[in-house]
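Researcher: Hi, I'm a grad student and pretty new to this. My advisor asked me to get structures for two proteins we've been looking at. I'm not sure of the right format, so I'll just paste the first sequence and hope you can take it from there.
Model: That works fine. Here's the first sequence with its structure tokens right after it:
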Amino acid sequence: MDNLFSEGLTLMAFGMGFVFVFLTLLVFATGIMSRLASRYLPEPAAKAPKARPQPAAAGTASNNDELVAVITAAVHKYRK
């Protein structure tokens, strides 16, 4: 029983050691690739957003009033 337990502990130590080494190498490799990508592939310059046409001011008041009325009616209908 003692031999089986020690073999289990040895296998666990090797497995955990392997995972630790692999993850450490993965962190370093990711960092190196990040530096290389930022050096050789810089981000493109941001483009200015296109100006959208402004809606007419005369029609917005009636549209908002109608929208408020519709929302109010829906709330009253489903609140009961």
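Researcher: Oh nice, that was easy. Here's the second one.
Model: And its structure:
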Amino acid sequence: MSYDAFAEFRMDGHDVIITGGAQNIGAGIARTLSGAGAKVMIADLNGEMAAETAAEIALATGNDCRGMACDVTDKAAIDAVVRATVDAFGGISTLVNNVGWGGRQEDPAAIPEEEFIASYRLNTISAYRMSMACLPHLEKARNATITNSGSFSSAVPAYDILPYATAKAALNQMMVSLAHLLHKRVRVNSVLIGTVMTAGYGDAGIDPEMQERLSHPDSLTGRPGRPEDVANAMLWLCSPASRWVSGQTINVHGGGTVVRLFGR
């Protein structure tokens, strides 16, 4: 009798929403979960790119993958994504709160209050709203999970990206609290992500010279991450293979240290 050691990593029969999945790490997660058999809805602020990425993934994996526009700071847009996913797939078993962004501050001592509020809305409140909107459907699903894309910056000194790091630290607290609130019904976990070189670094105001420094990180593996490194961890946390794991933050940062590479 043969034994398939990877059978429990399969996502057949799972219906997934991934926020911020049109490019970079989110697209890597979408590709991996689809490749494992899941039906995937990519929800992204850039609806056109979400649809293009979804079409490419569906062609590559042969599984149903769709994309649509969603501003995760808008409750009506969140509700629309949930309705569209249920209409398309019949339910929701898996939510990946991947959306997140934060720019670098030149003067950490003079950050406007509004910047903290905007970061909290995008990086923390959006995950809560999306989780609550999906909850009625998650509670009906087999192996229901919520998994957040966190940040290693939430666990180390991060004066150069303070609003973002602070909001991601709040996300960690929200994750473990929801895991206890939803115990026995929905598993909730987070991945604390280190330096993954994507186009997002340029968008955040990190110049090419600094990106070159970041590409040789002070970590145990000696390289920056790739989207697939994060996606593989997400697959484990979303799949039945991790059915005994909830309320956890999983570090995926190459064995990163507390050393900040941005400098003052």
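Researcher: Is there anything I should tell my advisor about the second?
Model: You could mention this: The mean pLDDT is 91.
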